[in-house]
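Q: I'm writing a short explainer about PF11208 family protein for a general audience and would like to include a description of its predicted shape. Could you first generate the structure from this sequence?
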Amino acid sequence: MPTTASPSTTFTVYFTGRFWVGVYEHHDHGWVRAARVAFGSEPGEAELYEWLLAHGGALGERAARAPWVREGRDGARGRMNPKRAQRQAAKEAARPRASTAAQEAVRAEQESRAAAAGEARRQDREEERGRRRGIRRARARARHRGR
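A: Of course. Here's the predicted structure. Afterward I'll give you a sentence or two in plain language.
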């Protein structure tokens, strides 16, 4: 069991794709205890501060009742093969990261604007082709009539 020489505590909030989740972690000499809480909409800093004042003690008690887990363990695996580690790192880097709802909303708006602009460009090209074809047809008719 760890001692209380230099413990540290962190509270991290992230978006899982459906919910905003807060994770309370207590680190102590290579061991970790944690508790998790789910929020509804994205909490602001003031809301988080108020929530922690009201419910932080209970969250800390839940973490204190949680079992100690060795920090940084990767299943039952010891040292990892460097090539496997490199492949896993490349796979993690290629995987899309969880982003905030605001970032996703901005990205969706940009995509919709790009799609609308592409549609407008396609329509303009079609109109220009139609206009040029009309001019060619008028010339051909004029030639046919001997003008």
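A: For your explainer, you could say: The chain has two domains: 1-72, 99-147.
Q: Perfect, that's easy to follow.
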